[in-house]
Amino acid sequence: MARIVISENVSVDGVVEVGDGFDRGDWYARIGVADREAWAKLEYDEALGAAALLLGRRTYEWFVAQGWPSRSGGWADRLRELPKYVVAGGTDPDRWANTTVLTGPVADAVAALKRDIAGEIVLYGSGRLARALLAADLVDELRLVTYPFVVGAGERLFGGTDAVRPLCLAESRTVGEGLVLLTYRPA
């Protein structure tokens, strides 16, 4: 049985997406070289440990628009070879190798993936999908790379919730010189 792992970049105040306005966004460009290199290694290592990727439509489209299907290098090669599952209609799975579009209710489709795949299914980005999986109690681990910025506005990973969801801190460590990886599991 697979484990669903949400892997997010988040500001100190919980923002995961700022929309198209890069006056508040593009945190990666604002961190130092040591942080960028450490973050890239962290992401590459995570991809090496994954059995599959899970993406929402907007995150899938972002990866395609950024040229990931044809990029070179270890991380890009690994993402290309991994099975990718996209939750959303209207997505063209032929734009990135090994992509399957999931159909039906999200919770049911992801629960079926958990039963059918062994290993980690890593969810990149996809804030709305992450919130839906959290609400359906399908998430086994949260990995939050916290950037040293207070953004003030934007989409947050944790919006309104129907219940308190206790978490247990499994790991915390510095990544580079200024990022922090916080790993939580359901309590």
From TrEMBL:
Residues covered by the Bacterial bifunctional deaminase-reductase C-terminal domain: 4-181
Family annotation (InterPro entries): DHFR-like_dom_sf, RibDG_C, Riboflavin_Biosynth_HTPR
Coiled coil: none
GO BP of this protein: riboflavin biosynthetic process
Pfam families: RibD_C (PF01872)
Domain of life: Bacteria
Record PANTHER family: 2,5-DIAMINO-6-RIBOSYLAMINO-4(3H)-PYRIMIDINONE 5'-PHOSPHATE REDUCTASE (PTHR38011:SF11), DIHYDROFOLATE REDUCTASE FAMILY PROTEIN (AFU_ORTHOLOGUE AFUA_8G06820) (PTHR38011)
Protein name, UniProt field: Deaminase reductase
